[in-house]
Amino acid sequence: MHLAQINIARMLAPFESDTMKEFRDFIDPINQLAEGSPGFIWRLKDEETDRSSGMDNPWDDDMMIVNMSVWQDLETLREFTYKTVHAYFVQKRKRWFTGLDHPHVALWWIEEGQTPTLVTARKKLELLQKHGPGPEAFTLSRAFEAHP
User: Which of 103, 118, 122, 145 has the smallest C-beta neighbourhood within 10 Å, fewest atoms?
Assistant: First the structure.
């Protein structure tokens, strides 16, 4: 089993604005760091820009950006999220993003070789909002082990 994750965020200002400059400038380096990290398997990206920001998404909101990836396990995702330069962007996220009144991160287990879709990811966020963390959708702080 592999670990899929979806992370959505609503920007404070348009992506190309000065408000978003620091975040925008670090997207490519952070994506490269992720791709070179132990346990990384896949990430959602537009083939032309190599980014997921700006892609169509099921939220019908131009200010919403989406990050979706697949990791080997919980430990490698935690390591990347909290023990690399990525942690700076987690800690400072209020500089670029508004708070949401629903979960913005969901994790779930998938079969090896499976690629998650945005439709499935949105359903996982909705499941998490409706029922809280459980084996079908959870968070890093309330994680569930994979059961083959």
Answer: 145
User: Alpha-carbon distance 66 to 58, whole Å?
Assistant: 10
The CATH number covering residue 16 comes to 3.30.70.100
- Domain residues for the domain of 35 are 2-131
User: Any idea which residue has 């800690």 for tokens?
Assistant: 91
Quick check: helix, strand or coil at residue 70? strand
Handedness of CA 70, 35, 83, 64 (dihedral sign): negative
Cα(58)–Cα(46) distance, integer angstroms: 15
- The model carries a pTM of 0.88
Structural tokens at position 19: 């408000």
Would 116 be classed as within a structural domain?
A: yes
Overall domain count for the chain: 1
pLDDT digits (tens, 9 = 90+) for 118-148: 999 999 999 999 999 999 999 999 999 887 6
Q: Are 107 and 134 in contact (CB under 8 A)?
A: no
Question: Is 148 contained in some domain?
Answer: no
- In a domain, residue 139? The reply is no
Coil, helix or strand for 20? helix
